[in-house]
Each structure stands twice: as C-alpha cells, then as structure tokens.
Write a structure and sequence with these properties.
The complex is a heterodimer of chains A (269) and B (197). With 269 residues, chain A is α/β, with parallel strands linked by helices. Chain A has 2 domains: 199 residues, Collagenase (Catalytic Domain) (3-Layer(aba) Sandwich), CATH 3.40.390; 34 residues. Chain A contains 6 helices and 6 strands. In chain A, strands 1, 2, 3, 4, 5 and 6 form a 6-stranded mixed β-sheet that branches. The N terminus of chain A is likely disordered. Chain B has 2 helices and 10 strands. The longest helix of chain B has 10 residues. The N terminus of chain B is likely disordered. Classes of the chains: A alpha/beta (269), B mainly beta (197). Chains A and B meet through helix 1, helix 5 and helix 6 of A and helix 1, helix 2, strand 1, strand 2 and strand 3 of B.
Chain lengths: 269, 197
Amino acid sequence: MKLLLFVLTLSSYSYAFTLNNNFGGSFKSNKVKVQVAGNSSCSAQTGVTIYELQSLVEHAIADYWENIPTTNLRLKNDGFTDTITNMYSGRLCAPTDSTCISTAPSGTLIPPVNNIVISCNNDPVNFNGANVFAVSIPNNFSGKKITGSVILINDSSTVFSTLNREDKIAVLAHEIGHAIGLGHSKDDAALMYYKQVDMRRNLGQDDIDGVSYLYPKLADACGLFGATINDVTKIPPTLAQMGISFFMMLILAKLFKQIRRNLRKTSLS
Amino acid sequence: MIKYLFVFLLLTQLIPTGWANTGAAESVYVNLGTHTEYFNKVQTDSSGDTRKFEIAPTVGAGIVINFPYDRFKFLPELNWVLPHDGLNNNVIKNLFMLRADIGYDPLDWLRFRLGSSIMHLNQHGRGGTTKINNGNGTSTFFNPDENRSSINTTFDLGAEILFEDWALRLQTYTYSLFAHDQRQLSYTIFISYYWDQ
C-alpha cells in the first residue's frame, strides 16, 4: 500500500478543465457547423479579412479539435452565413445576462444563432479591455444544451493584428473551445488557459479531457475505423455490444478465478 | 480486407474463453507500469513542448493461455490507469483497458504481442465551481458534475523480455488506426510477475 501511495505521488497528471461560465452545457448534436459572418467585415485593425478569418477557422479546427480519438465531436467548417444581423457592431449578451441586455443600445443586440458563428466586432464593451483578443458566448441555449454560440474578434483595437498567424489560429481554437462549452483551465499547458502563452501548437491534457467529457465517444466493435454512436447517454447498447460485454465478463471471471487459485497456491506453499 | 483482419483480431478476444475453461492456462501474471497517453501530441508547458513520457501508475493482471500451436499464446488482460486528483480535485479520471493479444515467442526470453484493447475512459465530475482569470478579471466556471465515459478500440503491438518469473514489456496502443486525423499512439511500460501453473 505504501508503494502504491508513493507511486501515486509521482503521477504527472493535472486535471483542471472547467465548463463554460454561463452554464455547464454542450451542443445537443456532436456535429457542429462553424461559419463566418459573410455580411460582416473586418477592418485593417484586425489584420485579417473575413476570407482570411475563414482560413484561420479551418486551421483552428483541423490543427486542434479534430485530433482527439476519445471524443465524438465533429466540427465542420461551413463557409459563410449572411443571415445574422448586427455581427460587426452589435452587442453580444448571454440570454441570461439581464444587465447586459438592458444596457445594450436599442436594436444592437446580436440575435441568437444556430451552430457557431464568427465575426469581427468593433463594440469595445463586448471585450472588457483593448488587450482582449476575442470573446465567445453561447447565446442560444436551453437547459444544458447549446444551440448556437457567437465568437467575436476584437476589431475595436489593434490587439488581434499583433499576433502571428499561428497564434491567431490558437486564439480562434481557444474561442471555439468556449463555444462548444469548455471553460478556462488553470494549467498553462492547456489551450483553454486564460491567456496567450509563448508557444501554442497542440492541445493540453485538460483540453482533451474536457472535450471527451462534453462529447464522449462510444465506438462500436469496429471502433478502429472511427465508427461512433451519437449521444451515448441516450442510446441503449446494441445486441453486439451486450454480447461483447458478456464475453469480456466471462474472460474477467476466468482471470480472477485463476489469480485467486494461484494466490491460494502461493500461500499454501 | 484489412478491416476484416482487425474484426478477426477483435473476435480472438472472445473465442479462447473456451480454451481457458479446458485448463489450457499456462500461467497468470500481474502488471505494474506507467502509461503515456498520445505520444508527442499533448502540449506540456507554455513553451510548446509535447509529452513523450508520463508517470501514470498502471496496474493489471492477465492470463497466458496455450494455443494449439507451439510458441503462440493467447494473452487476455485487464489494466487500470489509476486515478489522480487534479489541480482542483474536481474530476476523477480512470482508464480501464480490457485487452487481448496473440503472443509469439521466437526465443525463450522474447515475446511479441499483437492484439487489441477496449479502452474505457471514465471521468467523474464532483461538481461545484472554480474561480479562474478571464480576460482582465475573474469568472466563476462550472466544474463537471456527471459521470461520463468514452470507449475506443485500439490496435496494439508489444514486445516483452522474459526473465524467469519477471518480464519487462513495451506495449503500444494505436487509436483510430484508419482515421489519420485522429490517429494517436499511446504506450505503457510494464513490469510483470508470472505465476506458472
């Protein structure tokens, strides 16, 4: 037992992922579209156009969120959407934030969206400081299920333009993390750490654990090929899965029987 | 064709249960090791380094079952990567590996393993909230409060050096073998102790 406790103290784990600060929820579906507001724009202050923004989004998905085998989440870069109003100059409020809603100038609220919509935005109130690169808020949800989230790039200052391309991708990946339901991590190795770090090129363990918690994966017998079952909490196991479980339990029973027999033999001798 | 090969590998986890009941078990063994998840793909600090090795205590046990063919063995086992409380004690994480290999002993002291695992990743959230920096202030973030699991099947390769009753093993697990964007390699270094029948 002492040895076990000693080994445990050597562990290099760190688990500190949290869920979104508005509510601890996730998208209802594991397939989420990510779109850029095509009727919006980005000024020279941000250092990107909406077309470049779209390219950065593609990399943010591919370089970070697509690489985790233990999650069912599938983000799809879905081009542009032209239907959302107020994206460039409007006020972004969570539906539960009555103070934000009541203080927003009339007619400027960004409406609830479906999926994830990204835009540049020049309202400094949204960013709580000129040094904030971007913000993300699920602004369409019911209970613990998100229907839509908005990501805004700070176009009220030049802060976003100071980043190199890789760091812009990392910032967008971080905001997508919020949009899908993750909160901040205390671990500076995590993408969801609250501030930018010297070098960010991969997810940290907290990010992987967090997205695996929010969107767990249940592979079938052919999981080697990436087959998945949606929403594991609601779909009962198939006959094949129950069969596999039954046979595995048989193996386990045999295993423990053998170990018991051998331990008894050892103690007798 | 390749798909069927791996479905066959998976089925080999089930079929030899009958052999075990005929008393063909040669020995049982226990494992103590350390597990490294997603080799070289997980950032470990703010300077961009990635994880090559991790101390994550792992325990397990298995059986050696004789095949009808000389030098081949069937090796089912169960391993458990022990949980460890995190920075906030807000999530307990367990990884259970229900796995089986076909072993080939080309030499008396060397064993190669080919098989697959069912990886059961379980995370249990304790609920509550955590205050963390957010922009220029702090915010209260929710902690996970449910019990959730992910299940993956992996393609496994291993090599084991046998010394009398003891063995040293490098065991690898490949996630999503045929989905290159999600393919990840994890490994465990095991020390095993064998009891012969």
